[in-house]
Amino acid sequence: AIALMFAVLQAKPTPFCVLDEVEAALDDANIERFIRCLRQFDDIQFTLVTHQKATMEKTDVLYGVTMPERGVSKVLSLNMADDLSTYAK
Predict the structure, then answer these.
(1) Which residues touch 59 (CB under 8 Å, ≥6 apart)?
(2) What are all long-range contacts of 49-56, with beta carbons under 8 Å and residues at least 24 apart?
(3) Residue 1: is it exposed, middle or buried by C-beta count within 10 angstroms (0-12/13-18/19+)?
(4) What's the pLDDT score for residue 4?
(5) Would you say residue 85 has pLDDT above 70?
(6) In terms of Cα–Cα distance, which of 60, 62, 52 is closest to 30?
(7) H-helix or E-strand containing 30?
């Protein structure tokens, strides 16, 4: 299914693409391959919804939602190119 999606995107590119857990069943080696394929599409902005640590480690920007207290959600963002000491409290 992922290969078919990449083929469609090569034939008819789109400005952005949202992918929800498409790599959930992949192991770390195949996640590496998946990320390399994504990076070939430098004219498409991808938004990945994932719980895979290996995928999150390869992102440019990471967004997350946390609930510091019941009923209150907080959106977090982390630019992976930034110095992490700027986020320390």
Answers:
(1) 48, 80
(2) 49/18, 49/19, 49/20, 49/21, 50/21, 50/23, 50/24, 51/21, 51/24, 52/23, 52/24, 52/26, 54/28, 55/23, 55/31
(3) exposed
(4) 94
(5) no
(6) 52
(7) helix 28-39
**Closest C-alpha to 45, from 34, 24, 61:** 61
Residue 40 CA to residue 75 CA, distance in Å, equals: 29
CA distance 83 to 77: 13
Which residue type sits at 80? M
29 vs 75: CA distance, rounded Å: 30
pLDDT digit string, tens, across residues 36-48: 999 999 899 999 9
Specify the pTM. 0.75
In angstroms, how far is the first alpha carbon of the chain from the final one?
A: 43
| pLDDT (average), residues 16-37 | 94
